[in-house]
Amino acid sequence: VQLQASGGGVVQAGDSLRLSCAASGRTFSNYVMAWFRQAPGKEREFVAAISRSGVMTFYADFVKGRFTISRDNAKNTVYLQMNSLKPEDTAVHYCAAATVYGSRTTGSYDYWGQGTLVTVSS
Predict the structure, then answer these.
(1) C-alpha angle 5/57/4, rounded to 5°?
(2) Could you give the C-alpha distances from 65 to 28, 62, 68, 106, in angstroms and in order?
């Protein structure tokens, strides 16, 4: 499956952004979807994941209550709504697809988008 992330940009602390990731090539609803991020000089880290149907989600502790992952299987798209952004949220954000639900590790994800940069100024 091919993944194309978009929606990044430069915002101020406290602002909101919605990232999108459009999938093509295979049946989108067969895949668990997730968002990861990578800040400069740091390892790529898990942000959020959503089950195939969209019923189940889980998040990294640092985004709970601020970010919401969702998906629209009719549009082959997964979203990440980010509210109350902080400067430490500055990173390249990647969407990823897996066949197994519940993992926070990059190795469990088979397909990756190219990333979209989110910059939060203080």
Answers:
(1) 10
(2) 26, 9, 8, 23
Separation CA 12–CA 30 (nearest Å): 36
Mean pLDDT, rounded, for 84-91: 97
**Residue 95: closest CA among 72, 76, 74, 115:** 115
Q: What is the mean pLDDT of the chain?
A: 96
pLDDT at 26: 84
Residue 54 pLDDT > 90, yes or no? yes
- The count of other CB atoms within 10 Å of the CB of residue 32 is 22
| Phi-psi group of 96: left, alpha or beta (phi > 0 → left; psi -120 to 50 → alpha; rest → beta) | beta
Contact 120, 87 (CB under 8 A): yes
